[in-house]
């Protein structure tokens, strides 16, 4: 029976090497992270997926507050006229907007956009709230839903509605606004690495890839197991663009009226997609302990034998007291079925408790990341589980980093970039800085400029051969 | 100067006895809980208001999880056709719905409603997820924004968009669904009393006042300082109405296919309005410690004198370690200004630290609820503050209960109900159970049937004089 069990799950998931997109879809649906909503392009985040989001929120919110930010909530509906106030912004977002034209049984005098992002409505409020230098900086974050009407959608990665946080700050000086922009990029990187176990490359985006309305966008890019890049978060230095569009001015100490400088930064439920594709394997999800809804699952073996279930219940209580998010699977499925189910759902640690184990005063513990099973004494098992969880968290980051680092290659021409990305790599190459060369790379390789590399290691533009202004990380991207 | 300070604040707030509605508006705006959004009827929840909501969320979410519920997230946009599947539901909600007709630059084939509540879209998903008795019960909650287009709006009390939680559960039997409905009503009551310090009367609603689509609605009603009632939360037993409309069926142990029974229950940012109007006074807000964003504010007196600011910083650290949400007001405003500002903002406890106090090893502590100031030794001040906060929480509930209990009166006829509600009371009266008599009370007194009283204390209907089927709590309501 348990052999049939194991096959029944694995057979349902497409081959991760042969068909990565189908593997992704199979995993997100079968593990009940998400389901398709009734309106095309929408998703329902099911409890198992939402619990990951809650853990992400908890970790990020802590960091936002520790860096002086407060949460607030701004309206969902934005007058369409607000978008036209910032020229680049309207061009970038108007085509994706969902529009409310009727409400309360009447046609509205002005159509209202469902927020695709909130710079405009928040700028409008800041212009009321900011009067003097004493009101600065304004450091506000919002947890909210946003809507961007997309043609091609995939759960977590690109859906018409998604959940995110958007930080919006206003400062007296350019330096402070830029410092904030970089600080939050740093917060995101530290969070991605230490909580999601995903190593990221941070850097500036090209003009073409920047946020509509920003002076400069900085992104963090994560490598998925298929070698493609996923933009996992962005932080924008907005200069005075929105300050001028929304008239956000303050009376400075010197008596002069000045425009503020603003920043905005966000991450979304996309991060759940990143976790799946950075760590998952043929058996399904592999969840980093910090954000795993269940960190340890207890599976009784021969549960009806004397003392087994009682020992499991006691063990569960001990682990709970130790602060471990633990589940006891006391259903009447077979142990083999349970093993496969919880492996598929990515639970970091499985504890098997059988009658012979109990007699010998030990348990078997299975690590999901390495799929290695070892014996541990029952006494002090809380400490064993805690240090295992810490080790898994650390090892998952290092494994992901190793996988990524061996897949960053260099190229000196477009053919090299193509070879690189076709081989599932990130490709470092020189770029002269012109839009034409950037477009040419995309047209010929389907790769885009992800971020400026931290160091300029290439002297010539891979496209035109002229002097390189920057070294770029090129990749195909989600 | 400090005399001027105190006047400057108080003068800005309308007289609570003369003009309660204006007092409310003054308080919510001047304390920066909320601001008006650019679209009529919308609100911006500012950081100070949102922090109260976060504390409410934290307390409720803990209770939902302890009673076995999980969070999830369902789409904002609902096909209009879903509403027509439950006849009462569409009648109740269609007139208030905001409708998306265009998205991504195109007209939509079917208009989409922004959720006013999610029974329909969640019912649609449950019909996919529920197959067998093993899938039951489904115990899901959602934290979300909802939209109901209202003609007359007031911040927190009635706005086109608001934040709330909506629990949606599905059960195998009528008994279980009813048990859930009552359990969550009990959770709300315990939360309102112990966290918000607001005593509530819970009970069944009349057919006229029930939720559109429910078999039975149970509400909790709180008395505001003007004697009006505020519906602070509702729990609905939905029977099989939505199960039949959305075809939510399960295969029972006996092999028969059966419809589930569902419940739904919700509270919203309205609760912030309840806190303001249940506890506030002429100086402004009075916040219950459990949900106050700042529980204690430290005000240095003669801050430039040696050692004062250092002592305040040290005190702040000590209180933080003790788990108190504490703020040190180190701005250069005068102490009098600070006293008035933090009193207006409802901070439960103010600690004044001056040079003479320090010499004597003591501090002055002001309680916002009673406006009494007393001396406390600096040593062990953490414990003093903690027990003061607990005492304030308890005393605020008892004070609110005493205020309310002396304003519940009885009436035997419509004139008596009118006299009662005009005097700012809840009125207990008999009701025969017919819609005509209920409508007559409303037409002649502007009071509505809030809930069935727990006990039937009146024998005759106050309107028609026939035998009373129930004793009703009548009140004017928000």
The percent range for helix content of chain A is 25-40%
Instruction: Give the C-alpha Rg of chain A.
Output: 25 Å
> Which structural category do the helix and sheet elements of chain A fall into?
alpha+beta
CATH superfamily of the largest domain in chain A: Bira Bifunctional Protein, Domain 2
Overall pLDDT level of chain A: 96
Q: Report the uncertain regions of chain A.
A: 1-7
Q: What is the count of helical runs of chain A?
A: 15
Quaternary state reads homodimer
Fold-level CATH name of the largest domain in chain A: BirA Bifunctional Protein, domain 2
Straight-line N-to-C gap of chain A: 40 Å
Count interface residues per chain for the largest interface.
A-B, 56 and 56 residues
Query: What's the number of domains of chain A?
Result: 3
Write down how many β-strands of chain A occur, each being a DSSP E stretch of 2 or more residues. Answer: 23
**What is the level-2 CATH architecture name of the largest domain in chain A?**
2-Layer Sandwich
Description:
- Two copies of one chain form a homodimer.
- By secondary structure, chain A is α+β, with helices and mostly antiparallel strands.
- Chain A starts with a helix and ends with a strand.
- Mean pLDDT of chain A is 96; it is low at 1-7.
- In chain A, the strands form six sheets. Chain A has a seven-stranded mixed beta sheet, sandwiched between helices. A five-stranded mixed beta sheet of chain A has the order 16-15-17-18-19, with helices on both faces.
- Chain A has helices spanning 2-10, 20-30, 47-66, 80-83, 87-93, 119-129, 174-194, 241-246, 270-279, 308-321, 335-344, 355-359, 381-405, 414-422, 435-445, and strands at residues 34-36, 43-45, 70-71, 77-79, 98-103, 106-114, 138-147, 161-171, 200-204, 216-223, 229-239, 249-251, 257-259, 261-268, 296-300, 326-328, 349-353, 362-367, 372-377, 408-410, 426-431, 448-452, 470-475.
- In chain A, helix 1 (2-10) runs parallel beside helix 11 (335-344) and helix 3 crosses helix 7.
- In chain A, 36% of the residues lie in helices and 27% in strands.
- Chains A and B meet through strand 2, helix 3, strand 3, strand 4 and strand 5 of A and strand 2, helix 3, strand 3, strand 4 and strand 5 of B.
